[in-house]
Each structure stands twice: as C-alpha cells, then as structure tokens.
Write a structure and sequence with these properties.
The protein is α/β, with parallel strands linked by helices. It has 8 helices and 7 strands, in the order βαββαβααβαβααβα. It has one domain (about 5-210): Rossmann fold, CATH 3.40.50.720. A 7-stranded parallel beta sheet has the order 3-2-1-4-5-6-7, with helices on both faces. InterPro entries: NAD(P)-bd_dom_sf.
C-alpha cells in the first residue's frame, strides 16, 4: 500500500542530501507544503515555507499539520569542533526534531543515519549515530525509516579533504560499501516515504542504491 504525504517537514535542507531531497519534494505535485527551517534563506517556491534561524530555537515555533518528516541533519566532530558539539547536532537535535515532528502530527519519520551506526561502537561517530537511532525508536513512531548510506558523493560547502580523496574510489567500490549520489538518495527517500508500513525499517546501502535508480 502507498500513502501520499501532503505536508512535509524537512530538516537539513541546506546540506548535500537535504538540498537534493528538497528539490525532489518541490517537483512532486501531490505535496501541498514543505516546511524547511534553516539557518539561511532557501530559493523561494510557492509551496515552500522557510523559517530562518537556529533549528533548536525554531522547533517550538513550527506549526502543522505535518504528515511526513525527513531529517537530513549530519556533521562530524571535525566540523562541529568538539565531540560534544557533534553529539548535540547528530543526536540531541535529531531527537528533538523527531519529538517536535510527532507533536505536529507526523506519522512517518525518515532519517539519514550512517552505515556504521552502532550504539556499542568504540568509534564516536558510529556510536552517536547508533544512540540516535535508539532514541528515535524510543519515541514509538507509527512508522520510522532509518536509512544508512555510505559516503555521499558530490561537492560540499565545506572543504573535506578525505572525501575528495576517497570519492573516486568509493564510486567504484562494489556492493555494500559503494558511495551513493545524493540525487539517488533523494529518490530513494521519496520512494520510502510513499510506502505505508508499521514499525521500524532499516534500509542499508545496497537497498538505497536499488531504490535510487
């Protein structure tokens, strides 16, 4: 069965994944409204609402209705500055976003996590992503979709030397570890949003590639 979401809430619209997803959503004639809070102004569109400011401060002021919520927030300890700041974004803010989306009436939350997400991992990045997933599960969503891509391909607003070095290799890596184009990830997220199901679904890298074709 398929459910067509009419009112969308999107976090992370200025990022690589979120920007492509926003473009995708605004081309869908079935969507009446995309609510995309962001620190900076987005390109105007008649069906886009773009409150501007810090997401943590905007969340209490957001208004519904919301049918489906997408969370594309993501950083690294290097970007955030400290491990604590990284956790505040990739764990605390994602959990707060999920809670607010539930309060606004959303029944389906789709979150871009990470392939390595594991609450028991010795690596901070992977552990925080895993703990974030567990926190969202505890919110008892009617439908929760956790997508776990590998590295995203494409230019980013900030210089990330490691990504520049590994992108060419990850384009060629077969199977589970192959990096994904953000346009393909956006297509996969939209297709997953149209699927009506109950409970938690974890979508790994290979399935994302299939859905994103």
């Amino acid at each position: 069965m398929y459910l067509t979401p009419q009112h969308i809430l999107l976090a992370g619209a200025t990022g690589l994944a979120g920007g492509h997803l926003l473009d995708r959503l605004l081309t869908e004639p079935t969507i009446a409204r995309v609510l995309a809070p962001a620190r900076q102004a987005l390109a105007e569109h008649p069906r886009l609402e773009n409150p501007q400011g810090r997401l943590a401060e905007l969340l209490p002021r957001l208004t519904g209705p919301v049918d489906t919520a997408f969370c594309c927030l993501g950083s690294t300890a290097e970007q955030a500055g400290t491990q604590e700041a990284f956790r505040a974004i990739d764990h605390d803010l994602v959990i707060a976003f999920g809670q607010r989306a539930r309060e606004l009436g959303a029944r389906h939350l789709l979150v871009v996590s990470a392939q390595c997400a594991d609450p028991q991992s010795p690596r901070v990045y992977c552990r925080v992503k895993g703990e974030m997933e567990e926190g969202l599960k505890a919110q008892n969503w009617p439908q929760l979709t956790l997508v776990r891509p590998t590295q995203l391909l494409g230019p980013r607003s900030e210089l990330r030397l490691l990504d520049q070095l590994t992108d060419p290799l990850l384009r060629l890596t077969p199977g589970h570890y192959r990096a994904i184009d953000p346009c393909a990830l956006a297509r996969a997220l939209w297709r997953l949003a149209l699927e009506e199901d109950n409970g938690v679904r974890v979508v790994e890298s290979e399935e994302l590639h299939r859905l994103g074709r």
